[in-house]
Amino acid sequence: MTSRVALVTGGTGGIGTAICRKLATLGHRVATNYRDHDRALDWQQKMRAEGLEILLVPGDVCFADQAQAMVDEVTAQLGPVEILVNNAGITRDTTFHKMEAQQWNEVIDTNLNSVFNMTRPVIGGMRDRRWGRIIQISSINGQKGQYGQANYAAAKAGMHGFTISLAQENAKFGITVNTVSPGYIGTDMVMAVPEDVRNKIVAQIPTGRLGTPEDIAYSVAFFTAEEAAWITGANLSANGGQYMGW
Q1: What is the CATH number of the domain that holds 222?
Q2: Domain around 10
Q3: pLDDT of 104-146, one tens digit each?
Q4: How many structural domains are present in the chain?
Q5: Do 87 and 119 touch, CB atoms closer than 8 A?
Q6: Residues 94, 142 contacting (CB under 8 angstroms)
Q7: Per the CB 3.0–4.6 Å rule, which of 48, 50, 175, 184 could disulfide with 132?
Q8: Cα–Cα–Cα angle for 118, 21, 6, nearest 5°?
Q9: H/E segment holding residue 109
């Protein structure tokens, strides 16, 4: 397998950690961004304890100048970014009639505008080299909607609109652009939900369990493979059968 340079945004979170781990285990040179320096260093030490060296670069995906600086730092230390995983995301849940502009803007900035901010600095180089893999981590709720998540669902749906447009523009340059839409994953955030609420969620999932971060990492790895060169503009619904759309 060819070793590539991979940049994963939001890589120190539950799903992001699994993606970084999977790509590094496959032999790629992996980097992720951080905002909390001490927390990031603790995370890096845990990765090193597993024998994995993940490059940390400071930066907030909400800001184009910081995104450019991240890409520049990764390029200087590891080489040009060949795999980009747009994974960073937040929630600010409330029903729309109570939603403040800040709650809307924070989610759109972090989940959707960040995709522009991170992809714009790498797409030119990918086109020049005629190879690239770009993966958006969307959500089941971007496909079906969710009560109290108009901001989040709009951003996550927008991510796949970005995917299918970018896929068309760059297919002839050897670049694939795809989306993974996770269902409910057993991250710390979900596991903190009261057990009776979690049981109701699981009851709606045909496979009978929450997903794992590793399930999503495998989906990402599938799209990054050399053999996946003919798959672009796709949305992989990794949700245990909870939502089955076309």
Answers
A1: 3.40.50.720
A2: 5-235
A3: 999 999 999 999 999 999 999 999 999 999 999 999 999 999 9
A4: 1
A5: no
A6: no
A7: 175
A8: 30
A9: none
